[in-house]
Amino acid sequence: MIYAELISIGDELLIGQVVNTNAPWISRQLNKAGFAVKQITVVGDLEDEIINALDLARKRADIILITGGLGPTKDDLTKQVLCKYFNTHLVFDPQAYNDIENIFRARGREVTPTNRTQAELPASCIPVYNKNGTAPGMWFHADGKVFVSMPGVPYEMEAMMTDFVIPKLMQEFKSTPVIHKTILTQGIGESYLSDMIAEWENNLPEYMKLAYLPAAGMVRLRLTGMGESKNMENEMIIETGKLKKTDSSVYLWRRR
User: Fold this and answer.
1) In what side-by-side order are the strands of the sheet with 251-255?
2) CATH architecture of 3-172
3) Mind listing the pLDDT tens digit for each residue in 114-152?
4) pLDDT tens-digit series, residues 149-188
5) What gap in Å lies between CA 147 and CA 55, rounded to an integer?
6) Please, which contacts does 230-235 make with residues 24 or more away whose CB atoms are closer than 8 Å?
7) How many angstroms separate the CA atoms of 185 and 243, rounded?
8) Fold category of 178-255 in CATH
9) In this predicted model, what pLDDT tens digit does every residue of 205-248 receive, in sequence order?
């Protein structure tokens, strides 16, 4: 598997002022593309914390995706920290500035000196241009790892991921197919269900993993398959069919 790690930056996330919706959205997109998320980390707007998170992430993952801290104000440190981390310097990017000008022009405003600095990018990065906002993203290569920094504004980040980041990751890494099948059960608790289907679970193929997700009145069983088998999805459907025959007292009422 190619592993990814997500780093979300911002004091507002730590104090609960803003809900971190970016991480689950990115995780879903990576999963669909065949990349496994190893860990999600949230750090504040402090240089030492950001650098420490980057150091730890590069030990665990092949892909490190960073969101937040790219605004024009003094509390947004990500770009400067990345310059320091990758031992590079800022250079003016004309295309990034053109994108910023277009956004300000559409709003009937002039680009401010502060916003002009957002067109300055680390010399060693590949720019990830932002058509929906004033903060470009940045793509770095280091020791076989990929680091991508994107804005924390969800619709800006989502466009970058969809249009550029995911396609480029799939070019650079060999992804592994990941398929999920979910069965919802009703009428039995998690521990009793585990005992009841133990034999079936123990005989699952090595590339399949079962997770129990209990909720009020039901337990979701998520079967995840990871591998290169061309028939993996059919094999997973067969396995869920076997589960339905284990015990008629368990009401299995939906499969997808």
Assistant:
1) 208-215, 218-226, 178-186, 251-255
2) 3-Layer(aba) Sandwich (3.40)
3) 999 999 999 999 999 999 999 999 999 999 999 999 999
4) 999 999 999 999 999 999 999 999 988 878 888 888 887 8
5) 11
6) 232/177, 232/179, 232/207, 233/179, 235/205
7) 11
8) Alpha-Beta Plaits (3.30.70)
9) 888 889 999 988 889 888 888 776 667 777 777 777 777 665 54
